[in-house]
Amino acid sequence: MSFLRKGIDFYKFKKAMNSISLLINELNSQIVISKNNYEELFEELFLIAFLYRRDVIDNLEKNIFNLYRKIYVPAISDEKILLNDMHYRMMTSIINIAEFFNLLNEVNNVLEKKSLFYEVEIGLSKYNKPL
Questions:
Q1: Residue 63, class by beta-carbon neighbours within 10 Å (0-12 exposed, 13-18 middle, 19+ buried)?
Q2: Are 70 and 49 in contact (CB under 8 A)?
Q3: For the residues 39-67, what does the mean pLDDT come to?
Q4: SS (H, E, C) 4-61
Q5: How far, in Å, CA of 16 to CA of 22, rounded?
Q6: Residue 37: what pLDDT?
Q7: pTM to 2 decimal places
């Protein structure tokens, strides 16, 4: 892979991490506001898990980024932190929300790119909007 292509991929990767982190923060805020009316938030959790799998985990596997490289993602930290730590924080946030909603198995199914991942992907394609 060319140096320029790898740089572009890494930029897109960081941008995806920032966007997904903002979505996680928004979902956490909505959980506080919704006061036990969580069913409408389940789809958002599945969307976050889908995006995290597609845009972060798949890129980590495909591009083999150095997990011990320090990077800056504003929605996650005010300073540069290790990519490995950032990945851990985001996965922990997604898993914690899934446990709160009692949807851990379903969210793991999406994160592990099993059948539910493809169901979410098909559901998104109905909107015909690229994410």
A1: middle
A2: no
A3: 91
A4: HHHHHHHHHHHHHHHHHHHHHHHHHHHHHHHCCCCHHHHHHHHHHHHHHHHHHHHHHH
A5: 10
A6: 80
A7: 0.89
